Description:
There is one protein chain. This protein has helices at 4-18, 26-32, 42-45, 61-68, 74-97, 118-121, 127-140, 146-151, 162-165, 172-182, 193-212, and strands spanning 48-50, 57-59, 99-101, 106-109, 114-117. The chain has 213 residues and is mainly α. It has one domain. It has a three-stranded antiparallel β-sheet. A two-stranded antiparallel ribbon has the order 1-2. The two termini are 27 Å apart.
Amino acid sequence: MPGILYHLSFAEEVYRKLEPVISLDKVSFMAGNLIPDLATDKKQSHYRKKASVDGFFVPEMELVKRDLFVPEDSVKFGMFCHLYLDYYFIEEFLIPEFVWDVERMKVINPRNNKEWDVKTFFSHSGMYGAYTEINQLLVRDGHVSVSTIEEIPEILPNTGLTVFDARREKTWKAELDEYLAQKKEYTGEIFDYNRLWSCIERIATQFVDEISK
């Protein structure tokens, strides 16, 4: 569920921490972190199962690990990394960050008591717009470098797995350029940038600790 720059920032953080431990091809690893969201069948590419709150879905991590936990294959390992972030970002950040009032079909931010109806929250004027607000900050603060982005090929490598190699027409680069062109001002109404980045950082540390055991 996090956007392109969130996955690339997470991948950068993981790569920095893992570099002394295992050998990864950085460009291939970064590319792998983008591939699951490009699949035409995202239900299959994300191994979806119901999350702890109705209406949310997270990857079935046991199946993800079975298919993609291949540290010697930097692309597949990157795909595993992508789905790992999806799971923990939803369960340990997005769901706990808000009050989900199912009876009233409202989403409430307890930090400022603002509320949205569910349809508005899950729209470009809600949560997805809030992701876009933070894109500029991730680049500004060096959580993902422009040089890293430029090294990743626009057409990502095939994986040999049909579900991941059947891809939409729009490339990740075209989508990212659209997001960055918006230059949306950060308001913090929905997501607090520092809280969000602290969560991503913590998940990266957890990921590396698990891999390093």
